[in-house]
Amino acid sequence: MFLSVFDMFKVGIGPSSSHTIGPMVAAARFLDHLRALPFGVAGVKASLHGSLAFTGVGHATDRAVILGLAGFRADDYDAEKAEAEMTRIRAENTVLPDGLGALRFNPNEDVLFDYGPALAGHANGMILKGTDAQGDVITQVVYYSIGGGFVLTEAELAAGKDTEDGPPVPFPFKSAAEMLVMANASGKSIAQMKRANELSRKTGEDVDKGLTRIWEVMNACIDRGLVTDGILPGGLSVRRRAKGIYDALMAERGMNLSAPHTINDYMSTYAMAVNEENAAGGQVVTAPTNGAAGVVPATIRYYLDHVPGATLSKVPDFLLTAAAIGGLIKFNASISGAECGCQAEVGSAAAMASAGLCAVLGGSPEQIENAAEIALEHHLGMTCDPVRGLVQVPCIERNGLGAIKAVSAASLSMRGDGTHLVPLDAAIETMRQTGEDMSEKYKETSLGGLAVNIPNC
After folding, report:
1. Are residues 276 and 344 in the same domain?
2. pLDDT tens profile 372-397
3. DSSP notation for 109-134
4. Are residues 91 and 20 in the same domain?
5. Do 229 and 94 share a structural domain?
């Protein structure tokens, strides 16, 4: 199995990796499909199914599809150009993707929200269609956005294609147990094994540059969130809180006003800053998803700003270790809220962050595995019930609590020698089974939980 660190951590835009980035990726793939056809098309259409329909408006899924069909990409998204192009598309009812000419597309009619049963392959399904001059469909592809910005066609999903093809990697662990065996046999850390796997696909320079950029984008996202206030879009009138809390924390420094537990406020504020930026449609890094994008960067920022002896040079090891754990969870269970609830998003993020922190604090592979297990275990059963389909309530604060749990789990694991009762593999399998048993209304449909119990929503 090989899942790159750059697959787990992808630069994109808010508010959702599965509902915003994924549909934009699918649209880009569909354009490539159209370019490869021996015949041309005159127009394009899309239908959204399952969770993409139920919470698609709040997650800006329709906008993502429209811009994706216009040729925009999440990893180099230009908000100003996107807004100008949306205005043009609405006025002219065409998209202008490179190499395909003007394609007929009415954004008010050609994106269908289908609220019937989900497509068979996954809760996040969409069908992209090419039409002839009469408007008849002459080609179509079914895509599934399976979480974290990962997209598979119907055929790829059926074939079990969920990891990158390529040459064999030196440490092909598919479980935490295999990971520990390989670490002990090789004498390498989890980060060193993950880096060796990355070097089977990229040069060392490319790996280093890529990891540097991931942290730079994460950190910039925190910084933007800490200085921006106002009301988040979407109609809930949720006020940004990170700036106000951070300003108060800064004012209290050196005044002997803070209780020891105030450190939790720092961690929460870093995470909330990211997820407020995500909710506003800003640039974020999937970690492993947008809905859980604040946990890993908040934990890294906690390490750098508050842990004595912390050094920026260890951040790559943090990211590589976190990605190794995230890959195990994705391969053996899910990172999709629409598939397994928020245990698969914030729970996975907390496990990744806890493992990364344990690694940079000097933890052994066994302690790192223990840290990840503790963090994941204590998110089991968590539902995904976003109010009005927006990645705001309870998502923003939930990331703050996920970061706190991640730090606590790493600290607990470091107090032991890595010996513990519940293996990480068992926690991952339990999360998968719990997700299967969970009612669909608690899996990113906004049909249950807080989503139906908040007045005026």
Report:
1. yes
2. 999 999 999 999 999 999 999 999 99
3. TSEEEE-SSPPSS-SEEEEEEEE-TT
4. yes
5. no
Largest Cα separation within the chain, whole Å, is 73
Angstrom distance (rounded) from CA 23 to CA 2: 23
Count up the domains in the chain and report the number.
2
Domain with residue 319: its CATH number is 1.10.4100
In a domain, 21, yes or no: yes
Cβ neighbours, 10 Å, residue 355: 36
Residue matched to tokens 């995904």: 384
Same domain, yes or no, for 121 and 261?
no
Task: Report the predicted TM-score, pTM, of the whole model to 2 decimal places.
Answer: 0.93
Residues 45 and 80 in one domain: yes
DSSP designation for 313: G
Q: How far is CA 261 from CA 131, 166, 326, 404, in A?
A: 60, 47, 29, 11
pLDDT tens by residue, 420-453: 999 999 999 999 999 999 999 999 999 999 999 9
Instruction: Please give the helix or strand (H or E) that residue 94 lies within, else none.
Output: strand 94-95
Other Cβ atoms closer than 10 A to 353 = 37
Domain span at 144: 16-158
Q: Which residue has the tokens 């909710």?
A: 279
